Amino acid sequence: MSTNPLEAAHQLHTIRDWLRYAVSRFEEGGIFFGHGTQNSFDEAVWLIMAALHLPHDTLENFYDAVITEAERRKLAQLIERRVTERVPTAYLVREAWLGDFKFYVDERVIVPRSFIAELLREQLAPWVENPEEVTAAADICTGSGCLAILAAYAFPNAEVDAVDISDNALTVAQRNVSDYGLDNQVNLIKSDMLAALKGRQYDVILSNPPYVDAPSMEALPQEYRQEPGLALASGEDGLEHTHTLINHAAQHLHPGGLLVVEIGHNRDVLEAAYPHLPFTWLEVNAGDEFVFLLTREQLV
After folding, report:
1. Domain locations in the chain as residue ranges
2. Cα(18)–Cα(24) distance, rounded to whole angstroms?
3. 84-126 pLDDT tens trace
4. Contact present, 254 and 107 (Cβ < 8 Å)
5. Which of 162, 133, 158 has the alpha carbon at shortest distance from 147?
6. In this structure, are residues 76 and 9 in contact, taking their beta carbons and an 8 Å threshold?
7. What gap in Å lies between CA 98 and CA 104, rounded to an integer?
8. ω into residue 126 within 30 of 0, thus cis?
9. Distance from the first to the final alpha carbon of the chain
């Protein structure tokens, strides 16, 4: 079905036309999903509505809206880049979503996707009994700052440290923190994991660190190769960063403090490495093998 994108720009007029065209191109091109959608239709809706600066949930109001020639050229270019260059939609439209929260993203940061976001919507209940009593939290490997921002909403009385080793990531995180008006609550800190946090202690430490093992890095779909490798790879077993957190988080937690870490598909490897640790595996919509919780006392 391959169509010259410039020809498409002249032949397609309404949003309904462009949705049909985009879904066809995505299906024909065999793009890989996983940065916020799971199918061609949802991906097309996201790309088109974001590119046209329309709220995603208003699609039905605009199905038959005729778009301008400039908008058509823009859509043709974006759809073609999504298919031929495998650029994730989040980078094309400079936005990503976690629940109802929208974040600015570009190629300097990994596209936000974390099961911890689900847990923060519930304010880490029941492990945090009173969210208002959480006064200090940290997000290690913050990337775009998304989990730090969600933590600031979940724990309104907490000062939140958003920590990353990448200056580029911290620049993006600063934009998101400012967009949400949280400059007085969220602090950006450049640090290799916990190294620069001497003397700082928290009620909650969150982390969605790099956790892709070496064999999986070699087999990543092209879409994931567009992301910073620093934000994905974590040694031969995918647990290099998690080892650091387990070995050093206790000294940065208050008594009763919590460490919550996302580890991808590495549960079996992690449990084999730490047979003495009583991991609590937290239930998220994909199951109970992706995020663990340990208390300071368990870590000690």
Report:
1. 5-93, 107-299
2. 10
3. 999 999 999 999 999 899 999 999 999 999 999 999 999 999 9
4. no
5. 162
6. yes
7. 11
8. yes
9. 61
256/295 Cα distance (integer angstroms): 6
Q: In the numeric block, which tokens belong to residue 73?
A: 């050229």
User: Residue type at 98?
Assistant: L
107-299: CATH class: alpha beta
| pLDDT tens per residue, range 195-243 | 999 999 999 999 999 877 778 788 888 898 888 877 777 777 779 899 9
Class of domain 5-93: mainly alpha
Q: Count Cα atoms within 13 angstroms, Cβ side, for 138.
A: 27
Long-range CB contacts (< 8 A, 24+ apart) of 182-187?
182/149, 182/152, 185/152, 185/158, 185/159, 185/160, 186/145, 186/148, 186/149, 186/152, 186/160, 186/161, 186/162, 187/159, 187/160, 187/161, 187/162
Closest CA to 119 of 290, 244, 247: 290
Length of the chain: 300
Residue 14 tokens, joined: 């309404």
On the CB side of 116, CA atoms within 13 Å amount to 27
Record the tokens describing residue 216, joined without a space. 């999986």
Query: In which residue are the tokens 């397609």 written?
Result: 12
